[in-house]
Each structure stands twice: as C-alpha cells, then as structure tokens.
Amino acid sequence: MGIVINHNAVNQVDKNTTIYLEGEHVKGVAIILKGRVLAKSKGTRVVLGTGNFIGASDLSFGRYLCSYEAFDEVLFYSFPVQRMEEVADIFTINKDYKGLMSASLSRYVAEIEKIYSQLRNAAEDIYEFADKYHGKYMELGSKLGYSVNPITALKELEPYNEETLLDDKKLEYYKESARISVDTWKSFCSYGEIVALYTLEDTQEIISQMLSECSRMSDYLESLLLGLISNSDNCLYKSYASLAINIEETGGDNRELIRVVDAIVERINYLEKTFEEKLGRKCKVDRKRMEEIYYMLISKSSNRKEQVENNFQYTEDEAKEVTETLQGALQQICVYALYDTEKADEMAQGMLDFINLRDKFSTDDRIRILRRKLTQHFYELYESVFLKACRDGNAPKIIDLFLKYGFLDERLLTTDQIRELYFLDDEMLKQTGHCKVYDIKTWLTCIYKGEKEPSKNEFDQEYVDWLRNNRKRGEITEEGEKEALTNPILKVKYEMQNMFRYNSKVVNGQFSTFVPFLWGESIVKSFQNMLLTPERINSAVNNLLEVDYSIFHREILYVNQAKGIAKEYLMQPVYPDIILMPVMGYHGVMWQEITGKKKSREGRFIFPMFADANFNDMLIKVCGKFRWELCRSIQGNAWNNIKEKSLTSEYADYIQFYRKNRDISEEMREKIKAQIQKGRNNYREIFVIDYEGWVKGEATGAVKLNRIAREILATYCPFKKEIREHLKGMPLFAEAMERHARNTIKKIKDTELRYRALEKDGGEVIKELKDTLDFYKSL
Predict the structure, then answer these.
(1) Which keywords, in A-to-Z order, does the entry hold (predicted)?
(2) Cβ of 131: how many Cβ atoms within 10 Å?
C-alpha cells in the first residue's frame, strides 16, 4: 500500500511496501540509498539497486508508468520534483547526481531491453511453432478421416505486430552506456547539466515505448499460451493428445504425434518460466490435468476413450461428481422446495412426456398445452425454491444451477452440456465496468433484502402504484397495503409474477415453443460462448460509448442553498442495471428508463443469461429504445409537442408529416413508408431502426439515414468528437454536424451566463457545475 513520503529527507520502508503506484500522478523522484526497489508493470519486472533513481523516467508523462515496490528493506532520499523543469533542482543539491541519474537511466533502459528482446523472441518463436502445428493438425485429421476442429485462439491469431518501431541504434547506444562505470559518468557529466538533461529526456521516450510494447507482448503471449493449453477442450495440447490416442486405438502409429505433444509441453514450460522470471506472474496452467492427460497418452488406461470423447475437459472424478450431484435433478429440486406432492407428481409426468416428444419444436395443440402446464409448474416451483434458499442461506449446487440458469432435469441436456453448465465460472463475482450486472437469483435476493425496489409490471405500473390501485378496487385493505410495502416475500412474489415471467419469454424470443427451463435441442452453441458476463456486457457498453458517448448522461436538478444555488442542472452519467434471465435467447428488453419517479435513478435492461445472437446488436437496439423512452419520460406530456424541442418531439413531427415535407424526395418517402411499416407504426420502433443505422453505419461514414433524420440524431445522439471531426469534412454530413455545433455553442454560452449570474449574486460555482460545463464543451 502507499505511504507518506517526506521530501528532502531520508525515508525508510519495509519490504513489499509500494513507494510509487503505477498510474498515479508524479509526486516526487527518489534515489535509492540502501536496498533494492522493484520497478514492475504489466510487461516488465526490473530490480534497481543502490544509487539508482526511481520516478525520474516518468516525469514527462505526469504519472508513474510502473509501480515501484521495496524489494528489501529500503532507504531512499526523496526530491519534491514533479515536472521536467524542476530536475535541475536535484543537480544543485549534489553535482554527482547528474552522473548518477544518467548511469541509472542507461542501466534501466538496458534491463528493460533484455525483457523486451526475450518477449519479442518468444512471441515470434511460439507463434511460428503454434501456427505450423495447428496447420498440420488440421491437415492430418482431414487426411486420416478424424473429426478435428480448428483451435479458435490460434486460428484468429496473427504474427505479433509492433505498434511502435524502436530506434535500434539508440538501444545499442544505451546498452553500451550501461557498461560505463558510475565514476566515468560522474566525470563526464560534471561540466554542465546538458548531458544529464538530454539523457533524461531521451531515455524517457524509449522507456515509455518499451514498457508499452512489453505490455502488449505479454497479452499476446497469454493468447498464445491459451492456444497451447487451456481449461477448455479447444487447445493444441489436448487436440494432439486426443488425435494420438484415437490413432493408437485404431491400431495406428502415433509416435510422431507424441513427439509433437512433447514439443508443445516444452513451449508451455518456456512460457511459464518467462512469465515468472521476467514478469513476476504465474500462468494459469493446470499442471495436474496436463500430467493426467500425458499419462493417458502413454499408457492404456481403461477410461481414456471416454476422456477423449469429452476432449479431456473433465477428470474422471469431476465427471463422477457431476453425475452423482445431478442425478434425479427434478425430484431433488421438488424435495428441497417441499413442493406439493400431487403437483410434483404431475410435473414429473409432464416432464417425462416432454422428454419423450419426438419433435419438441412442434406447435401442436396437445404439445402447446403440455408446455403451458410445465411453465406454470416451473414458476410455482421457482418461487418455493427461491424463498427457501433465502431462508436457509447456502443452497446446494443443484439449487444454484436451477435458480441462476434454469436447469431443471438432467435428462433434457447432453452429458457434455450438463458438465459444461456444472463447471461454469461464477462470473457475476467479477463486476467490472459502468453497469452492474445481476443474474436473476442475485437480483431477486436484492429485492428480498430491500436493496432494490420491485420493477414495473407489464402495464408500466410501479409496485407502490399497483398496491394503491388494488386498495382502491377493494382487493386489499389499507393495512394490507402498508404491510405489502415492507414485506420482502410479497415484493419478491410481485417481481417473479410480473417482470420475471414476462421477460423470460420475451428475451428468449421463441414465443410458440417457449419453456422457461434449459433443453438440449434448442441449444446449438456451448454455454461458455453464449454466457453473458459483466466483462462481456460492459465491453459492449464501452464500444457503444465510443460512438454515442452521452447516451447515459442526463440533466439532474441540483439545489444547494448553502452555496447560494437555488436551482441548477447537472449533467451526470446514470448507468442502467443489467438483469439476466435464466434462459437462452435472442433479444434484449429496455424494461425501465428510470426507477421510481426520480429522473436521477438508474434504468433496467434485461437480457438472456445465454445470448445466441450478436450481443453488440442486441445492446444497440435496447439503447435506442432507452434514448426514446428517457426523453419521453423527461418531457412528460410535451414529448410530442414540437414547440418544445426534443428528440421525441422533432422525430415524431418528422414521421407524422414526412409526406408533406418538400425536402424529402418521392423515393425517400417510399423508404420511410416501408420503415414505418417495419416499425409497426410505433414511433419508438421506427426511431430504433434509424438509431441502429446511426450507430452501426453513419458513425463509419456509411450513408444510412436521410438528411432530416441525420440532423435530428446528430443533435440529440451526438457522436464522439473524433468521429464528428472526421465526418464534418464529408458533404452529406456537414450540415448535420454544423447544426450540432451551433446548438452546443448556444448551450455553453447559456450555461456560462447562468454561472456568471450565480457568482454575481454571491453563489459559488462548485466542482459539479464546472464538470457540467466541461461536459458541454466536450460535446
């Protein structure tokens, strides 16, 4: 952890103490008086000894490019230097510091170059090896008639391409300079400051370039390692081992393949050693599993055929664990929930009938009735299971699979599907990015604990409004209403019976054949490939923000009488909650643009846990609906009043009167008519079609919209500045970009006038107001 550093003084720190942290603003430079300091970043690990400067190579960038950590107990002297212009102050303290700093930086360059060269050589060697033997594997499998699949991590990988071309002459110069003695450097630099300052400035650039390249190469080598060996079945090691065993089982000679497996092991060992020694990181290599596979390869164990069939993905013990844990899953779940015996028997019989169906996709009336009965049983069972799990605390694994993924009966899935589902990582624990992501079990738990309020129902009613209406109709008493407002069980039941049931079917998208549990024939991809994780979701959100960067920003009323602010509006980002339904599906739902009545509350987007479609496209559609509904919610009854300019009012006016618009050609009118029909005469759905074209097409310079639609979206859904600068030079986009620029200038001017008036009246322009003005200036 960080420490308090005393400048112009000697500081002492214990081993493993972080002196400077990567990414933080430069707060000083230090010279090591005793001990060693580890300079570490994502792609490098260099130990610096007594007499070396730390932090000096970061001055030009204003932040530390790596972390500096005490390798032993360390004594260092700190200088309060934060900018290049202040470095001369160090030299005035002691003239020898000029030579010491030059020698230190030269050695640092030389040490990083060693790592850089080793990583570059590894990247070239391992790629060449992997590419060669991946090609041979595909060729051999096809030639001998064995079923082989390309290894995704290697098929998509290309040779490493350096982002920055380093100056080899400079590198050689500093490598040779590193061999010059410190005394010689002191003497050489004693005549003035120019040599030391030039060395500092020159080495900073080359150090920065090498650190960046080493970071990229470490990522590249990790990708290569995953191609050689991974926990999935799709890697070179398991593929060659599987092919070798298959050939031997049919009486063939697999000795050449075993030699390839040995060569793969050598490369894995080399990469693992490189990562540990040069980067200080451990690779995620399951050595025990590697050894088990190798033993099966060279021996003739009884179960190796089964292991080959499941591509070595699971050990014998793991496969046994899955079978024993999930045997009789439906009965286990019903017993756990204390589900009514008669209902449990009826559900078991219905499930048996469903399993035995020859065509589970049939829309025959008899099968449709069976699906409806099973669906009703599922939701009743789900409610009982969830509430018991809340009371009991830690639920068994099978209950977790049921609540999170909709797993109900092991007979509905193949052996491979069951095992993959069982060993899926709980990615919900790794929350990263702007949006908080919830599986349905976690979401309902938040409702139960009072951390979240129930969602609206399908009639757009909040829980509070729904209770009030029920009381007015005489369905509940006033006391019943008060109890329901605080009763966690009633809140959860409301959420299950409304948002959960409705959206499970919508995000699945298969309305005629929908059942709320997983069944094998409807699943064509692996669960891992379809699984929506917080990382995958937020990556797609970030991609969208690179185009429509203001989508989650909104004006929020701010009052602070103590600062003299009677009424102002702040622009703040409010990111939606993402809720995942326990189904496989193709669609997303923009369920709520805000929560409750406050405009500052987050919205709620709903997606399937397993997405069998392009998630970026799903997100863009949902965000198009979000844009529309948020504007409509903020505008209230004036959402389509053209006198009050807004996204919805201008777009609704454009669609309503497009036939009378003289600026629209007859050909374009026909296109708009077709778009209206495609959007089912719904303003929002029509807008979403244009929004998709705006984000996916027009952002790249492709013409997807007419002039009027383009101007509306340029005004209310502006691109990032870099995209606008690129497009404004194109004649078709110039007018739309100019309109946005005019509106932005007016907004900035109005805001600055209000802030000046606020200051004149004795108010204070606080940081939040300044941030809002900065946001408008970045529009």
Answers:
(1) Kinase, Transferase
(2) 17
Pairwise CA distance, residues 164 & 484, whole Å: 63
Rg (CA), the chain: 32
Dist. CA 543–CA 546, nearest whole Å: 5
For residues 30 and 54, give the distance between their C-alpha atoms in angstroms, rounded to a whole number: 5
Strand arrangement of the beta sheet that strand 18-20 belongs to: 18-20, 67-70, 37-40, 45-48
Q: Considering only the C-alpha atoms of the chain, give the largest distance between any 2 of them, rounded to a whole number of Å.
A: 98
CA distance 664 to 282: 63
* Token couple for 755: 């802030």
CA distance 131 to 116: 22
What Å distances lie between residue 717 and 379, 424, 641, CA to CA? Answer: 40, 38, 19
Tell me the helix, strand and coil percentages in the chain, rounded to 5. Answer: 60, 10, 30
Given a contact cutoff of 8 angstroms between Cβ atoms, the answer to whether 271 and 224 are in contact is yes
Q: Report the share of the chain in percent with pLDDT over 70.
A: 97
pLDDT at 738 over 50: yes
**Greater pLDDT, 286 or 674:** 674
Report which of 624, 606, 621, 603 is spatially closest to residue 554, judged by C-alpha positions.
Answer: 603
Q: What crossing angle do the helices spanning 415-422 and 316-326 adopt, rounded to 10°?
A: 90
* Token pair 């080959």 in the structure block, residue: 308
In sequence order, which residues have a C-beta less than 8 Å from that of residue 215 and are 6 or more positions away? Answer: 41, 42, 43
CA dihedral 557, 561, 565, 568 (to 10 degrees): 10
Q: Name the residue ranges covered by the structural domains of the chain.
A: 1-93, 98-313, 324-522
Residue pair 57/102 in contact by the 8 Å Cβ criterion: no
Joined tokens for residue 281: 């990181």
Does the pLDDT at position 1 exceed 50? no
Whether residue 739 has pLDDT greater than 90: no
515, 519, 622 from 510: Cα distances, Å: 9, 13, 18
Contact between 239 and 147 under an 8 Å Cβ cutoff? The reply is no
Q: Which two tokens stand for residue 236?
A: 């070179």
pLDDT recorded at residue 239: 87
Contact 675, 686 (CB under 8 A): yes
Residue 204, pLDDT above cutoff 80? yes
- List, for residues 306-318, the tens digit of each pLDDT value: 666 555 666 777 7
Tokens of 427: 């990615």
The topology (CATH level 3) of 1-93 is Jelly Rolls (2.60.120)
Chain centre distance of CA 158: 23
Q: Which of 458, 443, 460, 450 is nearest to 490 (CA)?
A: 450
Exposed e or buried b per residue across 661-679, where buried means at least 16 C-beta atoms within 10 angstroms of its C-beta: eeebeeebeeebeebbeeb
Percent over 90 (pLDDT), the chain: 58
Average pLDDT over residues 139-165: 84
Is the confidence at residue 611, as pLDDT, over 90?
Answer: yes
Q: Is the pLDDT of residue 237 over 70?
A: yes
Q: In sequence order, what are the residues at sequence separation of 6 or more whose Cβ sits closer than 8 angstroms to the Cβ of residue 418?
A: 322, 326, 410
In the prediction, which pLDDT does 670 show?
Answer: 93
Q: What is the pTM of this model?
A: 0.70
pLDDT class for 541, splitting at 50, 70, 90? very high
Q: Are 652 and 683 in contact (CB under 8 A)?
A: yes
User: Is residue 564 helix, strand or coil?
Assistant: coil
Fill in the DSSP letter of residue 513.
Answer: T
CB-based contact 701:727 (threshold 8 Å) = yes
Q: Given a cut of 70, is residue 305 above it in pLDDT?
A: no
**Cβ atoms of residues 548 and 746 within 8 Å:** no
